[in-house]
Structures are given as structure tokens and as C-alpha cells.
């Protein structure tokens, strides 16, 4: 009889806790959807500041403004964390063309981040098309030397999660130019990393190791890639050539900052749950989805907690990391200083896949038993908000260094719907007008809900 009474009491207590959690989360969603401020804040970031590549004047403007924003919300702590970052400058607009006899066919092109300039007259050379780094290496120096290498591996459309397609195609942009340089190539052009077929080239970082040979490298639009590939298949080369000119430059590193806001834990002030995105962006547009949405959602999580009167047991930080795009210095510095300060980090969530409709969260480097317990504890509470897909997967570039310096931290990636992200990613189309207000607010509320559950119940 005593055993039955105990079990009944436990079940009753569990139901009461779940009801309290549901009410608290409902209150957070109401605040986000009725009084949300992340969309308005994103508008300011995009339209009043704009592109924010590391080391630029606009990056510093974004640092100053976002610190003032968090100060205005009255968080317990708001401060800057100094970090040295690369300062790469694109320079004058790039030019490119397919040269077929006397005909010049203009091609949309953008320099890859951290690449070098071409000679002032540009580069004109024959083209070698490859689909992989392995294929390029097999050709050898005798074939590659003096040519423009054209990496043309398309996105694999069979992946449901488009980030997987990006991951499997991305080595040609990041590693490809360095390999081509070792083989004596004159330059590299890369098919833009997207499935959409249009005339918007996608930039992104390429490997530029100090002391190693670096050659000019650029991305061409998918339409241009298809056209060039078709001409190669018609065996119009070597009669036809490719020309491109770019004016980029890598300047000395400059001082910049991570921007951090914190609500201090009422019970465990030296235990932390971090939520963040990256404040820097590429220089082709406004960095709306990549990653303006992420940093404004992160600030919104703390604003929601403060507005609804939730006082977390553990300290909760919003971290706006600097230099995710072309160096990852901000994330490394945050992890380094957290370890130096002997902080205990429970979890870190990164939002860097756009502000689209939230689907759930992925947990990095965890076991099947762990993810089963997470689902058993949290799924039913998150399910009414369609943010209950809790899976094993990646987390994020900025929080990844924490795994090495902060034992026990659980790294989590916010997972919105991925189908449209790479249509805009690293292009001139990544502007405020392509962000949906309600989707953005739902994402902020979803992260607030998960952080609340972790804060209340642990992992």
C-alpha cells in the first residue's frame, strides 16, 4: 500500500511539474508572438548597418549598436570580449567572361573570402573541369599547370536536409583552391554552393594558409557553371578560354569583439547556458538570414525571460560571436576565456541556419540513450509548438571549440526548415525582405522554451 501511495504521489508530482512547464512556455510564446522585438531589431541591423564582414567599419558599428541594445533591455551583465580577427577586403567589383573566339560571354562571379587578387589585367587561360578534389589530384601537375581549374560538383538533391548537400559539396570551395595551387593552376572558379539555378554567385571562405601558395579563387553562378560545362562538353575548348579579374586584399588583423549579454543564475551563477549566433556577415548583402536572424533571436531569448519574469536557476548568456565566416576567431576566444574563468557550461545552442520555420534541435556527439531521454523528457512539452524534432546531429561552428575546453557541455544546433536557406546563403539576396516575421519569432520562442527546460531539469 505504501509503495502504491508513493508511485501515485510521484505521478501526481510529475503531472504538476509538466503543467507548470507548459504554462511557462505558453507565456514565453505569447510574449514572442504578441510583443516580439527581434524582427524590428533585425530591420535596424540590416538597414541601418548592413553588411558586417570582420574587421570592417560596419562590423564595429554592429558591435556598438548590439551592446547598446542589450544594455537597453536591462540584462544583468552586458560586455564586450576582445578578439583579433582577419580583415579581408573585396575591393572593386569582380569581372568574368567566357571567351569563345571573338565572343565574350559575361559571367556573374564573386571572389571567395580570403582569396587574393588577380593581376591587374586579370587572368585568361584554358579551363579544366573537375567534380572533386580527388579527380583534380589524379590529373597531376603536367595537366593542371597554368590552367583555370573549374570545380563543378552540384548539390545532391536527394538529401532532405539541405545542409547535408552543402557539407558534401563544400570541400571544393574551401580546400579546392589550395590543392589547385600546389598543382600549379593559374586560378580557380567554383560552382556556387546551392541547388537553385540562377545568376547569383555565392561567396564563402577558402583556405589561405600563411606561407603556402595561394591563387585567385572565385565562385560563379549556377547558370554560368551549367553554361561553361556545356561548352566544355561540346569540346569548344581549348579554342575558348575563361577570363576573370578580382581586386581583393588581406590586410593585417584588427581588434574586434564578441558581444555578450547575461541574466545571472539565481542558484548557480557560475553555471551557464549559452545561446548565440554570429554578428559578422559576408559583404554582398545585409546578412539577414546569415546570421542576423540568429543574433537577434539570441538577444530575444533573454528579453523574453526578463519580460515574463522568469529568473533562471543557471546563468543564461546571449553571445553574438564575431568572425564566424572567415576565421572562427570569436568562438575560439569565447571557449578559451570560459575555460580560463573556470566556468561550468551546461549547454550551448547555436542558431546559424536562418530564421525559417523552426523544426527542432540537434545534439552533437551524444549517445542514442541520451537522445532518447531528451525526447522522453521534453518532446511532449515542445510538440504543441512544432519544435519537437530532437535528434543527434551537428551544433554550430561558433560553439564547437567549447567541446575541447569545457568538459561536459552539450552542444545543440537550432534546426529551422532548411529548404530555402541555400537559395540565399552568402549572396546578394540575403536581405531583410526575405525574412518572415512570424517564423523568426517562433524560432526565438522555441529556443527560449528549450533553454527553460534545460535550466529547470538539466540534461
TrEMBL record:
GO terms for molecular function: carboxypeptidase activity; metal ion binding; metallodipeptidase activity. Homodimer. The monomeric form is inactive while the homodimer is active. One of its GO terms (cellular component) is lysosome. The keyword NADP does not apply. Residues 258-446 form the Peptidase M28 domain. It comes from the Bacteria. It is found in: Endoplasmic reticulum; Golgi apparatus; Lysosome; Secreted. One of its GO terms (biological process) is proteolysis. Residues 1-19 form the signal peptide. Keywords: Carboxypeptidase, Endoplasmic reticulum, Glycoprotein, Golgi apparatus, Hydrolase, Lysosome, Metal-binding, Metalloprotease, Protease, Secreted, Signal, Zinc, Zymogen. This is Carboxypeptidase Q. InterPro entries: CPQ (IPR039866), Peptidase_M28 (IPR007484).
Amino acid at each position: 500500500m505504501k509503495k502504491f501511495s508513493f508511485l501515485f504521489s510521484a505521478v501526481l508530482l510529475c503531472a504538476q511539474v509538466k503543467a507548470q512547464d507548459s504554462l511557462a512556455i505558453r507565456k514565453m510564446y505569447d510574449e514572442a508572438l504578441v510583443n516580439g522585438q527581434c524582427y524590428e531589431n533585425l530591420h535596424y541591423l540590416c538597414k541601418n548597418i548592413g553588411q558586417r564582414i570582420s574587421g570592417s567599419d560596419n562590423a564595429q558599428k554592429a558591435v556598438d549598436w548590439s551592446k547598446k541594445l542589450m544594455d537597453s533591455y536591462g540584462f544583468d551583465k552586458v560586455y564586450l570580449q576582445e578578439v583579433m580577427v582577419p580583415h579581408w577586403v573585396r575591393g572593386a567589383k569582380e569581372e568574368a567572361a567566357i571567351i569563345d573566339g571573338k565572343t565574350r560571354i559575361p559571367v556573374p562571379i564573386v571572389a571567395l573570402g580570403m582569396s587574393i587578387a588577380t593581376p591587374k589585367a586579370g587572368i585568361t587561360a584554358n579551363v579544366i573541369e573537375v567534380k572533386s578534389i580527388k579527380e583534380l589530384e589524379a590529373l597531376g601537375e603536367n595537366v593542371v599547370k597554368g590552367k583555370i581549374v573549374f570545380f563543378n560538383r552540384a548539390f545532391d538533391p536527394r538529401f532532405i536536409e539541405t545542409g547535408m548537400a552543402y557539407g558534401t559539396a563544400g570541400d571544393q570551395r574551401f580546400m579546392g583552391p589550395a590543392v589547385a595551387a600546389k598543382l600549379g593552376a593559374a586560378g580557380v572558379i567554383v560552382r556556387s554552393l546551392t541547388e537553385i539555378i540562377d545568376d547569383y554567385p555565392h561567396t564563402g571562405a577558402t583556405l589561405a594558409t600563411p606561407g603556402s601558395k595561394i591563387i585567385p579563387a572565385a565562385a560563379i553562378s549556377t547558370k554560368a557553371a551549367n553554361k561553361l560545362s556545356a561548352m566544355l562538353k561540346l569540346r569548344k575548348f581549348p579554342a575558348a578560354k575563361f577570363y576573370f579579374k578580382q581586386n581583393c586584399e588581406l590586410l593585417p588583423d584588427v581588434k574586434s569583439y564578441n558581444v555578450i549579454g547575461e541574466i545571472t543564475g539565481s542558484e548557480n551563477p557560475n553555471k551557464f547556458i549559452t545561446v548565440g549566433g554570429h554578428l559578422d556577415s559576408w559583404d554582398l548583402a545585409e546578412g539577414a538570414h546569415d546570421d542576423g536572424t540568429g543574433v537577434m533571436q539570441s538577444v530575444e531569448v533573454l528579453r523574453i525571460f526578463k519580460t515574463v519574469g522568469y529568473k533562471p536557476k543557471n546563468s543564461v548568456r546571449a553571445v553574438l560571436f564575431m568572425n564566424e565566416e572567415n576565421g572562427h576567431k570569436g568562438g575560439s576566444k569565447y571557449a578559451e576565456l570560459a575555460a580560463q574563468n573556470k566556468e561550468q557550461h551546461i549547454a550551448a545552442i547555436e542558431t546559424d541556419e536562418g530564421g525559417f520555420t523552426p523544426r527542432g534541435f540537434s545534439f552533437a556527439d551524444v549517445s542514442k540513450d541520451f537522445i532518447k531521454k531528451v525526447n522522453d523528457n521534453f518532446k511532449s512539452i515542445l510538440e504543441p509548438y512544432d519544435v519537437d524534432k530532437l535528434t543527434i546531429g551537428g551544433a554550430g561552428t561558433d560553439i564547437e571549440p567549447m567541446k575541447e575546453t569545457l568538459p561536459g557541455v552539450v552542444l545543440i544546433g537550432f534546426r529551422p526548415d532548411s529548404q530555402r536557406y541555400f537559395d540565399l546563403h552568402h549572396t546578394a539576396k540575403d536581405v531583410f525582405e526575405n525574412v518572415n516575421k512570424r517564423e523568426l519569432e517562433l524560432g526565438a520562442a522555441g529556443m527560449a522554451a528549450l533553454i527553460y527546460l534545460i535550466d529547470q531539469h538539466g540534461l
